[in-house]
Amino acid sequence: MDKYGEPARGPARPDGIELIELLAWRYRHELAPYYTAVGLAVVAGAGHDFAAPWWPLALPLGAGATAAAWRWMADRPQERVYVLAVGGAATLWTAAAWWASPDHDWLVLTALAGATAAGIPRWWHYRRRGKITVARGAPRGAGASCGGS
Prior knowledge:
With 149 residues, the protein is mainly α. The protein has helices at 16-26, 32-50, 58-72, 77-100, 105-125, 142-145. The chain contains 6 helices and no strands.
């Protein structure tokens, strides 16, 4: 018998928190925009609590992070536009959240909307696909001669 009073067959069922941790780790790439929004909210909250008059500091810090991402993470023109748009929006949101507090009612909704809007192109580009199987022993170029791509 397991702790739920059921016959113990197979692996034990995870607890609720353990299940959330498991799913959060398994889908970390899909949830990355929301993790980033939470990280920006933590930074803005700490800035609001401990250095509220310094909220303009979020603008050069965000611009620097956006420039670094634009330089080292974006290769194609579409990616560069995406990095500039998302980085600019995240910088402005962080500055506003630093000034007003990230738990302000409209800032929470804009963070969720912004994370979702930033996530859509990412989810489309990095969508999960079926597994690819390799036919062993096939001659080179066999796919091209059969009309495959």
